[in-house]
Design a protein that fits this description.
By secondary structure, this protein is of the alpha+beta class. It contains 13 helices and 39 strands. A hairpin with an 8-residue loop joins strand 2 and strand 3.
Length: 728
């Protein structure tokens, strides 16, 4: 058996964490300083000079073809008689917001009506707007036209954005020109607006001094009327300065119109508060860690922690973490607490999400990271009589979205896997036959294939982590590998260049989806691709997430290392041909693999990462993640945080793998200083094969348009193949 050399982890002295004089690279946190930007420019030039060659150009061209392909599925949302879509391609790099009819959408080449051309808007205003979405105002009656939208635009792709009112009938900004009506417009900030009615909004944004939380998010929710200066809007709610944020929204379901405040006390603590017509507030009293959703007559509660109701042992009722509960909402407001249990997790099953249609509730259940859909009928039986939807793929990604939960029971169903392009289908739950063995889905669109998958295979495997926990992972093998999927005793003829991807945080699940870029740029060249479902994610519900929270974070790193070790032990690859990749929280994962397990792999791509865990809570939105990582200003630093702060655990004399750091100047969520300082420190230590690239736009996504996305991806694939593909 191939084994890794023994490696003992020891945390480095964290005393370089404090003042600028103790951290010689702290100056790189000044995002737009001339000195920092000159450093960035120099690093970018060095990286591109090394990798921007003919092979890079071939990769970039191939990726751009995928991103700009005109036969991609244009996913839509229904608003009235129209189906809306946002689209980017080579001719429209910043994109078009457009719409069409259902009859046209079903055609291979729909006829689109363009509402907003973002590239033309940028040219007219001299800006670099990036689309951040639109919210349409639902009319009072089904027959009325949809006439207004709130459109959000971001400079360069940052989280901070502006919101403007748009006329869907005249196709112009409200208040522009001579139409005489004052339009709603929110200045640039983190926050947003949402409709109450045609002339009234909820607004939650930066109102000036003391209006943001310590995380930089809005703490005040106000009611803003048309024609009124925003400064005079009526304050409805204020969150605490050290809490996370607050937003307001109206449920405009006809006959069930209600106003709510979503009050986030911390990342995993929230309250849903109904603003009653008489001006009083009704807090929905369920555990702060639970997600509460009101829909028509029903209140759903998805538990993150165990919950026991009642103080007397003979009347107390307990519900487990991960369960989904339901109760009649008007009865709940009268004091009833007789919940119905709709879903209970077990060792293999967790609730990934749920979706309402007009008359049904659809549960998306993960069973060992495989989607299973159930349809429930509200009020029917003690558990709402769950029925499976037959005829769907046994593995891969299955997504559902209500076409129009106000009017119908129709669903969009999206299916895909690592090697199968996406299919968009439509089904009507009201017309289904529960006794049928195969549900008829109407195929609406099929995405094109971007690489030849003949001979490639996907298998799910399990590695054993340090504490004995079984960790699932998906292995995608290139064509021409014989016998490698039948069991761990089988090996490919030669170890393969292999890329291992992971995330492991914030209860986010990694489920299979079509990997067009990896397929064309990696699998087709003979590389293997692996996705690890490590703890910290949501693959097995809240328990899987909690297992790697705060002081238990090391388990996520141990899980990832276990998968790497399993790939070597089973002959798929060797440490010299194994690379890893992750972004954001996944960048923290990669940073810890670099510092804890440098002998496990040969190359790493670390994107928009958290790396300085001593100061992360003081940088941009970092304070909002202390529920995930811990508080560096408390005993958490000495107890566990310093143990997984990659920036502080770099050590002299260690043979680190090759690393490519990528980030964005305009990332106002995870500060680019994390990647900048890690790169600078490794370079100062003479760590060797380390590179850096910072895109000037793109926000936390790293890129603002398809050209930038293709360039970043091509750079990563070029770097990885240079280090891993050539090793054989």
């Amino acid at each position: 058996m191939l084994c890794f050399p023994p490696h003992r982890y020891r945390a480095a002295d964290p005393d370089t964490a404090g003042s600028p004089c103790e951290d010689p690279h702290r100056w790189l946190e000044a995002v737009d300083s001339s000195e920092a930007l000159a450093w960035v420019e120099d690093q970018n030039r060095r990286t591109l000079e090394r990798f921007e060659d003919a092979e890079f150009e071939t990769l970039q061209t191939g990726l751009r073809e995928i991103l700009d392909a005109d036969d991609r599925i244009p996913f839509v949302v229904k608003r009235g008689e129209h189906y809306y879509n946002f689209w980017q391609d080579a001719e429209h790099p910043r994109g078009l917001w457009r719409r069409t009819t259902w009859e046209s959408y079903r055609q291979s080449r729909p006829a689109w009506e363009v509402l907003i051309d973002v590239d033309a808007l940028n040219a007219a205003e001299g800006e670099n707007w990036v689309w951040h979405g639109a919210s349409c105002l639902e009319p009072e009656t089904p027959e009325a036209r949809w006439e207004r939208a709130l459109v959000s635009l971001s400079r360069g792709g940052a989280d901070a954005d502006v919101t403007r009112e748009f006329d869907l009938i005249d196709k112009r900004w409200v208040g522009a020109g001579d139409n005489g009506e004052a339009g709603f417009e929110r200045p640039e900030a983190k926050g947003g607006m949402s409709w109450i009615d045609r002339d009234t909004l909820f607004v939650y944004t930066d109102f000036g001094a003391d209006s943001l939380t310590s995380s930089g998010y809005p703490r005040c929710v106000k009611r803003w009327r048309r024609g009124q200066p925003m400064a005079e809007a009526t304050t409805l709610f204020e969150a605490g300065k050290r809490e996370l944020m607050a937003i307001g929204f109206r449920d405009r379901t006809r006959g069930f119109e209600r106003d709510f405040i979503h009050h986030a006390l911390a990342f995993y603590e929230q309250r849903l508060i109904e603003l009653l017509p008489d001006g009083e507030a009704f807090p929905i009293e369920v555990p702060l860690s639970a997600q509460a959703v009101v829909h028509r007559d029903w209140l759903l509660v998805h538990l993150r922690d165990d919950w026991t109701q009642g103080s007397e042992s003979e009347t107390a009722v307990s519900y487990p973490s991960g369960a989904l509960l339901a109760i009649d909402y008007p009865a709940f407001k009268r004091g009833d607490r007789g919940f119905t249990v709709l879903f209970t997790p077990d060792a293999h099953r967790s609730l990934e999400g749920f979706e309402w249609t007009r008359h049904y509730l659809v549960l998306d259940i993960l069973e060992d990271v495989k989607h299973r859909l159930q349809v429930l009928t509200p009020g029917q039986g003690d558990d709402w009589a769950p029925q499976p939807i037959p005829g769907l793929p046994d593995a891969g990604e299955i997504g559902v979205a209500a076409v129009d939960d106000e009017e119908s029971d129709e669903l969009f169903v999206i299916t895909t896997d690592y090697l199968t392009p996406t299919t968009l289908s439509r089904m009507d739950l009201a017309q289904r036959d529960p006794a049928a063995s195969d549900e008829r889905l109407e195929t609406i669109k099929r995405a094109p294939s971007f690489f030849e998958s003949q001979g490639m295979r996907v298998t799910q495997r399990f590695a054993t982590s340090q504490d004995g926990t079984r960790i699932p992972y998906f292995l995608v093998l290139p064509a021409g590998v014989e016998g490698a999927t039948s069991g761990h005793g089988d090996r490919p003829a030669q170890p393969l260049p292999t890329l291992l991807y992971g995330y492991g945080g914030f209860e986010i699940s990694l489920t299979p989806h079509y990997i067009a870029g990896a397929g064309r740029s990696w699998l087709s060249r003979g590389g293997a691709y692996v996705v690890a479902n490590i703890r910290g994610g949501g693959e097995y519900g809240p328990r899987w997430h909690r297992a790697a929270l705060k002081g238990e974070r090391h388990k996520a790193f141990e899980d990832f290392a276990a998968v790497a070790e399993d790939l070597v032990a089973t002959g798929i690859t060797t440490p010299e041909r194994l690379g890893i990749q992750g972004g954001s929280n996944g960048g923290l994962l990669v940073g810890n693999m670099i510092t804890r397990y440098p002998d496990h792999f040969a190359a790493a791509v670390c994107a928009v990462p958290l790396l300085d865990m001593r100061r992360y809570h003081q940088l941009l939105a970092g304070a909002s993640w202390m529920a995930e990582y811990g508080d560096p200003d408390s005993a958490d630093w000495d107890d566990f945080l310093k143990g997984y702060s990659p920036y502080h655990n770099l050590r002299e004399g260690v043979d680190y793998p090759a690393v490519l750091f990528t980030t964005s100047t305009r990332d106002d969520r995870v500060h680019p200083g994390h990647a900048r300082k890690m790169m600078a420190k490794m370079a100062a230590m003479g760590a060797g094969d380390v590179y850096y690239f910072e895109n000037t736009e793109g926000g936390h996504g790293g890129a603002a348009d398809n050209a930038q996305r293709a360039k970043l991806s091509a750079l990563a694939w070029r770097f990885l193949w240079d280090r891993l593909g050539a090793a054989g």
